[in-house]
Amino acid sequence: MQSHALESIFSKLYSETSLVYLTKYLNVILIPKIRSNQCHCLHFPNRNIQTRKYASHRDAPKSFSKAVSDAEKLVGYPTSFLSLRCLLSDEVSNIAYHMRKLVGTKHPLLKTARGMVFDGKNNLQIRGLLVMLVSKAAGPNSQAPYTEQDMISGVYPSQRALAEIIEVIYTASLIHKGIVNLKDIVPEDGPVIDMEFGNKMAVLSGDYLLSSACSGLAKLGNPDVVDLVARAIGDMMTAEFTEFTDTFEKTNTSQISTSFTDWLKQTRLSLGSLLAHSCWSAMTLAGHSKYLEEMAFSFGENVIYAQQLCKEITSFTNQDEQTSQSPGSLAPVVLFRELASEDEMSYLINYSPDSVYSYNKLLNVVRRTGALEKCQDLCVQYRNKAIASLDCFKESDAKLALINMVTAISSIK
Amino acid sequence: MSFKVLKETRHFNKWTQNVIEQLRACEFLIGNSEDYRYAVHKRSQNVVICSSSSCHSHRLCPTHRTSLIYTTLNANTTSILALPSTCQYSNVQAVRAFSTVGKDEPDVYVDIDPYKLVEADMASLANDIKKQLNTQETLLKTMSHYYFDGKGKTFRPLVALLMSKACNISTNISDRVLSKQRTVAIVAEMIHTASLVHDDVIDASDTRRGQCSLNKMYGQRKSILVGDYILSQASIALASTGNPQVITILSSVLEDLVSGEFMQLGSKEDENERFSHYLKKTYKKTASLIANTCKAVAILGQCDDFMSEKAYQYGRNLGIAFQLVDDLLDFVSSELVMGKPTAADLKLGLATAPVLFAAQEFPELHPMIMRRFTVDGDVETARHLVAKSEGVQQTKLLASQHSQEAIKSLQEFRASDARLSLERLARILLERKS
After folding, report:
1. pTM exceeding 0.95
2. Best mutation target, B213, B217, B232, to test chain A (most A CBs within 10 A)
3. Interchain contact A88–B (C-beta under 8 A)
4. pLDDT digits (tens, 9 = 90+) for A294-337
5. Above 0.95 for ipTM, yes or no?
6. Residues A75, A129: contact at Cβ < 8 Å?
7. What's an example Gene Ontology biological process for this entry (chain A) (predicted)?
């Protein structure tokens, strides 16, 4: 391959500091690029530096980064790496070229790009890693369409490819969810024409990732897996049209119709389905039994419930962590609604998002009703359920790593 | 490529010069893209054209000079450079053939209505798609069903169903459409619709098929997500065929669609590359879906590689012809008939075949193509120049050549109503007004 061409692309990308977002964006686009099983791929030269960056970030709990790095070692190498072929593709250079225009606007595409590589919180690209660990924990199988020699660090090539596909799909969904409605644009976002352009880029790059994911899936040669993953994509999209989403788009915290069942459904659709179906698919690819498929599915689903509960509790109790998410949709508040008396509900109804005072009052009342505590209990329950579904696997390093990771991502600070 | 080689032959007499000009036009006409192959038409030796790679010889065979027939490019005839393929001097290795337009085969099947043959299958199509898209979420249901109202042309499923029948009769497995082939037809329409939804956001178009577009009604964000949803349900349907080869073939269409969209973002600096860029884009954005659908149903109909390739070629040529007609209608049709504003492509900055042809006659179009008709008055000027030029006729001519090629690829199929319908379809395609 023409190495000078590659070098020039790199130097072009890294020399311009204003293009730092773009570079990161490219990492996102490129790193999880699906490659065929035989294709040789290079490690991204800056990858190590970036990994260290994740690890030393102030918000990342120590135990979590250790769990991740231990786990990454177990499966041989991280899910993410760069394919030469992809870097030189027309599509990517096209995106790179056009992304310059976006720097300086508030298009969510930039935020998504930044967040994917450098989220700062406990939301790294762990899906692929979990899929590979589950694959490894399940071990080799005589029914698999491969021999044991095909395994690299205990993972079949198809399972490894699947892990990457999952990351690509997740990235694509984030990019597409970051598309803005042009009629809702406010002047601070930047010029409408730039925002429209950002949308264009978001549509195209998301489509590009999705189409590579689809061909990657097709290459796995297993229609059942295509079906499972397609269902997960369908669920992720469905999540954007539920009553739950609808309610909180209007950021009206006094809405009282939302129950914890709705919260569970929303979490399953938007996040759980992908991991659960991927874990299932990883078993299918190795020809494992129906029972193992079910257990892997249940593991994926429960991990997400535990992780999401933990995230939302943290988000609710630490005011600095305030996300764009409406507090009314956070699990503790959803539970609070079910437990609160009419009197206590008034704190929620009168809640004003801009006032610290009002926020503290709400926090206190949520604590008082026991909703927060119940949320923490639930988090532990789902974590235990996840760990219990691993009982079907023999004791191994991979299983231990899974337990460590699950514990880490569901530990409330 | 051959154009450049031929330029060096300028020292020849005026007559040769003339031939070169014609050749250049031909080259332009067929494009020089690698994947743009023409099958050798054995029957018509009088319509042989040199391929780009075969024009190494700087001299034209003197003995055959007189037998070199060429006609002018205007009117309804192809520019034809005829050399007996036995001529050693011409050094023709890869001969690309052209047939004259619709002259060799009389159009005797006028009475066949392609829709008739698969009417029952077509009638329940929209409902089956809606079933596939069913969901509890009301808004998602409304939005994803929006374009499957039965008002669309459903051209892709029609081709898929007819091709299924033609294949099944040829391989003697059935005289009907198999349920898996029907699934492929459904998937094709779903992929097509999903791509329309995304295209409308990218092109910021407010109308589609004469009605309000999804993005206009529900905003850009949800429209894109609905497109993804339709695609995911199409994948589920596709997976139900249980055939990994078919899944791979149709997944490759998605990659083509995206890469076609990317190609549309940029225009080529080089005037000669521009046409092949355009044709390649046309293949990726339109023909790939039709071609690969045909191939997929052929495989499901137990066709061998040779026949599947023929099915693919039919779809590919049909698809390109379809798009060429679409592109020329953009210039000749009125807003009312098309269901979308005319000269829409120009307004989007896209130079399609009529403009590219017109630019040969009116070089002042080139700078406008390069700046994507962004300067005030560009669109009007370009429209005017296209109307004055032979661009529309030449586009039609090119479309009819592809239509002929499509019909030729069907020769190996056993004669049947389905095959006749496919042939008929390739012909009426050229006459469509909307």
Report:
1. no
2. B232
3. no
4. 999 999 999 999 999 998 998 888 766 555 566 778 888 888 88
5. no
6. yes
7. ubiquinone biosynthetic process
